[in-house]
Amino acid sequence: MKIALDMMGGDYAPLEAAKGIKQYLATPRAGVQIQLLGVAADVAEALAAVGLTGHEQLHIVDCPEIIGYHEHPVKALKGKPQSSISVGFGMLAMGKTDALISAGNTGAMLVGSMFSLKLSAGVLRPTIATIIPREGGKTGLLLDVGINSDCKPENLDQFAIMGTAYAREILGIDNPSVGLLNIGEEEGKGNMLAQAAYPLLKANTHIRFVGNVEGRDILEDKADVIVCDGFTGNVLLKMMESIYPITQRQGISHPYFDRFHFEQYGGTPVLGVEKPVIIGHGVSQEEAFCNMILVAEKMITTNFIGKLAAEIEVNPGTENEVPAP
Amino acid sequence: MKIALDMMGGDYAPLEAAKGIKQYLATPRAGVQIQLLGVAADVAEALAAVGLTGHEQLHIVDCPEIIGYHEHPVKALKGKPQSSISVGFGMLAMGKTDALISAGNTGAMLVGSMFSLKLSAGVLRPTIATIIPREGGKTGLLLDVGINSDCKPENLDQFAIMGTAYAREILGIDNPSVGLLNIGEEEGKGNMLAQAAYPLLKANTHIRFVGNVEGRDILEDKADVIVCDGFTGNVLLKMMESIYPITQRQGISHPYFDRFHFEQYGGTPVLGVEKPVIIGHGVSQEEAFCNMILVAEKMITTNFIGKLAAEIEVNPGTENEVPAP
Q1: In this structure, is residue B257 part of a structural domain?
Q2: pTM for the complete prediction?
Q3: Mutual orientation of helices B230-249 and A230-249 as an angle, nearest 10°?
């Protein structure tokens, strides 16, 4: 399998990316080829710094342009076709790689995912998810966390299927439960979106729906997968991400809050597109890069995209309807 | 002034309510009369237990019916006219008291506020707010946190005015700043609601609007008052409330997280109605009851309702338009 890794993305690129690769390769990884996208000289220097020069599983793909953090995603992708992100999506679309990982410009990664790649058959909207730390060492999954700020009930219904597949195949959660984020426990509660999504989730035979979950349940073990619109999810994710830095500043060191250090979870998968795409945090370091490669590998070896596609029902008349062959 | 206090509301009623009254009266409170609503024998027993029997500023109002926590709000209010909450709203509506406080059935308190009381002139929807603990000891205000799960842009614009008035008059924040909760910093970001609310807030001369704030800014000092729809706000509030119990279970004791013990802030005011109404947490104890009485007193002495009404513009054609005299 081939995994493309953007070496120029992230505050500590390319050195931390190189360290992450080294950590990943510390265990034998038969059959894995990593394509390193970036300014060739910089990438070679980083590889040399970690003692990986000439490694047979690593292949530098020279991408002389760099997309900065604050560049406008669409303009950057169009204006810099030789950037690592543009090249990566081109390779994905042409089948020259099996997965793309970047801790670079998040907007560009999302735009690339949505416009360079096809959606999986039947998927109405792609989505991104975040891991949630739970007490006792477990993890949950929350989605959407930002692509879809306004959602239709059908979107939440599909997020539940995609989140279930990711929790089961990638996070290793057996028979994951799904909760609908809401402001009350009973069916019928909530805003118009939640009220309309509830019966769809209840009738969905591809998931194990356990009903509404409230804000107080997010950090609890009430549902493995929690679905919500991308506005609410993004606000929640960013708030959760703000907690660890606060504990650092306050001098609070505790294993529970250490798990709010979101970097350790690697990246955020883009779900619903036809190829594995993983978006990392800008602050990604060694461990995060290693974890992102592991997730990409797992998405490929488990045939995650294929399994997900099998669970999404292709309804005639949906905007992403696939023409009959 | 007269303040009506529901003695039957809350998990630890009526004893903790009586303790809260004692704490409040430990400082001389000239001119304040407290009306104690509840089952007379129970209230008298609680007063006796804390040594307040026969106190000249306390007046028991016998309310032989009790609304339980899980009763349907509308049915309970209609079916139990002799309950403390029903009697309290009747007293408010008839001018027999100046404020109502209860830690009882939240739904009944909201329904009572919306259907027993008039809205302040020009107010489209009432709202409830929560205090947010900030690093360094400051507090912020987040609203709406649950009454309005679907909002129009105009609602958020009014929440900003109501939140500003509360922050200034009751929390003592000088010239409070207002932020719009959103998923990006720039104008134009966000869901349809946030995109439409931004220009209204920007043009609002009654507030000091500082732009969008993100999830990571909620616990930071970026804006004193943060406005959002009641779905997002409720989810955030309940998540924040869940953090303190987690720290307790995890054995984490730190002044920063102690401030996530929301009970200490007393109750949540219902803003936009013509009389002060304060809703307490079900777990309210002594300090919370004392704080709620203090907030009610402050809302009365500062003429909060009058000042708020002066800032809300009464636009012709709004659903709450007040007929010309």
Answers
A1: yes
A2: 0.91
A3: 40
